[in-house]
Design brief:
It is a single chain. The chain is an alpha+beta fold. Helix content is about 50%, strand content about 15%. It has a four-stranded mixed beta sheet with strand order 1-4-5-8. The longest helix is centred in the middle third of the chain and has 37 residues. Bound molecules: flavin-adenine dinucleotide. The site of flavin-adenine dinucleotide has 23 residues, from strand 1, strand 3 and helix 11.
């Protein structure tokens, strides 16, 4: 792939850097302590075009390619992973999936709002009893005349409390396993849908993560996204691209860890000289730098494959697996550079580590990524 960024890509990255420095960086500690990002950020993300990247302008999108999307996601991840997650889910998992699978009516109904930040989307796959084994989900959608009536519970749903639309996965036929699963676009205002904010998260504290309870939620049959029984394919195609977005966010975390650790190492003195002059501190810094570059290159390769219309799912698993583990390592190494100051939240590295930790868990744990890569290598599913 060509590793030179185009003028347009360089400009969009600069736009994202300026946005992060102006709108996000000054608020990061406050939002983390308050366990709530200011919701006004969604509208601002929409105005600057970050919620419409790669979506056709016809539906309110701002166009651009997947590398541009990665560059913006990386910058947002550098600023605040809670904000990065809002975009990765509302645009990456919901709007882009509607753009790929939706009917004309569904695209016209939902995409302009999602891409402008007028409304927020969430992705309802995980349930209390099914996480990694998502194809065995229990939420049921029963056909009644022209409607489906949905009952079930969704767990750990990013943007859940804020969302206007839920991309929801439910079992709509008696076909076994994932073959019985269909996808639905459920307005969050639908009678019978209630949500409970999940507090006390280790990281991503600013993010509105929720449990969704669905009791006799009625939607018209036209709310189904994709064909009946194809819901798991819809979910997996969304997550394959989503993993690239998580990986890009992890690059941002690792880059932030590198930036703050290098700066601090130059300022802090011990044993009569700057700690940057101690070889073991340089080892910590160089380990972070290698992780940043390797994670970034793996992630950009996925974007390049998508933009060229080539298969990318296994490469997305590799990028997500490596970048998420690298982000945890990088933030942990940066914390070591900060010594005791890294352990209190007036300094940024503790939050980077807390935010990085979930990246090895969601959109497929590291173990699940290894099984996906293993299946691609051997042809044998070992889940
Ligand atoms: P489990 O599946 O119970 O796994 C527990 C452990 O067992 C893990 O280590 C796992 O790797 C391991 N394991 C499981 N099966 C195997 C196997 N076959 N072989 C080897 N090891 C295995 N979900 C959504 O649908 N939408 C969201 O927006 C969303 N946002 C989230 C936000 C946060 C902050 C968090 C924490 C989670 C979010 N999730 C979301 C859920 C997330 O995707 C799941 O937590 C994840 O898929 C793991 O599922 P689980 O927690 O049930 O763990």
């Amino acid at each position: 792939m060509n590793l030179e960024l185009s003028e347009e890509q360089t400009a969009v990255r600069q736009l994202a850097r300026d946005f992060v420095d102006r709108e996000i960086a000054p608020n990061v500690i406050t939002w983390d302590r308050a366990e709530e990002v200011d919701r006004g950020i969604v509208k601002k993300l929409g105005e600057v075009g970050f919620l419409g990247l790669t979506v056709d302008e016809e539906y309110g999108g701002s166009g651009g390619d997947h590398l541009a999307y990665c560059l913006v996601t990386e910058e947002l991840g550098r600023g605040d992973s809670s904000v990065r997650g809002i975009v990765s889910v509302s645009l990456g998992l919901v709007a882009k999936t509607i753009a790929a699978w939706g009917s004309e009516e569904q695209k016209r109904r939902w995409l302009p709002g999602l891409t402008s930040g007028e409304c927020v989307g969430c992705f309802g796959l995980t349930e209390p009893g099914t996480g990694s084994d998502a194809g065995n989900l229990a939420t049921r959608a029963v056909r009644e005349g022209d409607d489906y009536v949905i009952n079930g519970t969704k767990m750990f749903i990013t943007n859940g409390t804020w969302a206007d639309v839920v991309l929801l996965f439910a079992r709509s036929t008696d076909a076994p396993g994932h073959k019985g699963v269909s996808a639905f676009l459920v307005p969050a205002s639908a009678p019978g849908l209630t949500r409970r904010t999940i507090h006390g998260k280790l990281g991503l504290r600013g993010q509105a993560t929720a449990e969704l309870l669905l009791q006799d939620v009625r939607v018209p049959a036209s709310a189904m996204l994709g064909a009946e029984g194809k819901g798991f394919s819809v979910a997996m195609s969304a997550l394959a691209k989503g993993r690239m977005s998580v990986a890009a966010g992890c690059v941002g975390i690792a880059q932030a860890a590198l930036d703050v650790a290098v700066r601090y190492a130059g300022e802090r003195e011990q044993f009569g000289r700057s700690i940057a002059r101690h070889q073991l501190v340089q080892e910590l810094l160089s380990d972070i730098a290698v992780d940043v570059d390797a994670a970034r290159l793996l992630t950009w390769r996925v974007a390049d494959l998508i933009d060229r219309g080539l298969p990318f799912a296994t490469e997305a698993s590799k990028a997500k697996l490596f970048a998420s583990e690298a982000a945890v390592r990088a933030a942990n190494n940066a914390l070591q550079v900060f010594g005791g100051y890294g352990y209190i939240d007036e300094y940024p590295v503790g939050k980077l580590l807390r935010d990085a930790r979930v990246m090895t868990l969601y959109e497929g744990t590291s173990q699940i990524q290894k099984l996906l890569i293993g299946r691609a290598l051997t042809g044998v599913p070992a889940f």
